[in-house]
Batch of 2 targets.
Target 1
Amino acid sequence: MNVEPSAARPGPGPAPALWRALGLALAAGVLLLLCLLSVWVGTRDIPFGSTWRVLWHPDASDAATVIHDYRIPRTLLALLVGTALGLAGALMQALTRNPLADPGLLGVSLGAATGVVVAIGFLGVGSVLGYVWFALIGAAVATVAVYLLGSGGRGVATPERLVVAGAALTAVLFAFDSAVLLLDPEVFDEFRFWTVGSLAGRRYDVLQAVLPFVLTGALIAVALARALNALGLGDQVGRGLGVAVGRTRALGGLAVLLLCGAATAAAGPIAFLGLAVPHVARFLVGPDQRWVLAYSAVLAPVLLLAADVTGRVVGAPGEIQVGIVTAVLGGPLFLALCRRRKLVLL
């Protein structure tokens, strides 16, 4: 008996791309709600009606000053830092083909910390805006050093060589930072408020300082998405598909430097965002780096804003720094992902 082709096969369901787009839109909606919550919730209790009113119609009241001068810049910075760390983590894991890679693997985060240590300990810098530039310089120097060490001698800068070089440089920088901080208690007291990771006290000047770096890094990351898909199959296959492996890896490293360096400079080291969020993204949408990068750019600020609001609520009338809360929330999340599925990129 002949069977019609349409009867032999079930009809096609909704396109996977449609479900992914709907999921991304849902995540963006959650992000918007968290932004409103971040503007509303704080150490000073302001009714939601008053918050909504002065949000759109600022006046000379104390509530308007708190919201427009403190909470809105803090919320915008959380969006920027979260997006940067999410993209940097996804890029790192794709470039190194290491599911446990995070933005600190190549010494970027510790390079930024070393820049801040030098600024405080030797140059007397005491403002957050001053830290930003030294942290960016430190991150840049560390990234270039890792790339030179990883590509020195015979051979090329393979993921394995870069990881080893990053681990070696991280050990050296950690020893240097520890020596400076332990020998000068005043430097340690100043540095510890930055190194815990916090969004508090950041104003528009910090946001404006790091915005160009994050935007440039994000544009590079988006442009590399297709090439990263090919590199996920291996360098030889990538070359066979027409990908310039060396250029892609160098541009990816530049994007990680810009994204992670700017985020770390603005808010200090914030753990688990760059490590855990790309795994959540791959769990939801699979290995396609175009979707992984998009989801990471949205889910990371969702987690960061949720952590920041939680720190304000739990720590009232003070607050718990967001770097502490992300570690508490991100650790169990990452362990749950590890138990649920193998940590693979493809």
Target 2
Amino acid sequence: MPKILTDDDIADFRAELCRVATERFAKYGYDGVTMRQLADELGCSPKTPYRYFQDKADILATVRAAAFGRFADALEAAAASSADPAERSSRVGRAYIDFALANPAAYRIMFDLNVPESMNHAELRRESARARQFITRQAEDLSRAGLIEADPQVVGWSMWAAVHGLVVLKLAGLLREGPDFDVLHKTMMRLIVEGARTKHAPVSERRKPAAEQAPMKN
């Protein structure tokens, strides 16, 4: 007679399946993981995972949603820890890095996988949106406080691109011969903020070089 699973049994199996899936997706990519491999890792029948998830894409969307949720929790806690815009921005940036370095598999499945479109997954859509709002929020706060003059959307995305690139280099082991990681991070952020203290005109409004200007009429 089959064992009757309790709610705790179901939750425990789902959690273990998600843990294994997170590690394998991060290591092998979406196409390098199969449902059979996940079942073998868990020591269960190949059909068992289908009792808990629709398919491989559903598993990936679920583990990505969980990763984004934990990531957003970390950023929200950092943002709530200070009322000063500059200090808050610094703490959110530090929380971003701390999460990424402490959870490399989760970070990779959030940002570094070529995955099928899965934003119709309600939980993933909600949690990723919650995390993404921090991309520009800190720069918007700096702008309102008069600490930067440049477009806060552009500044926010520039900060995100810079930190993401730094994290990826660190996780790939490519910074061993470079400057100290924290020094590099602080210098990078300082350069962005200092550059953002000047309001830059959109490219279309900038004066063209003399060689590109229309010739003057006699």
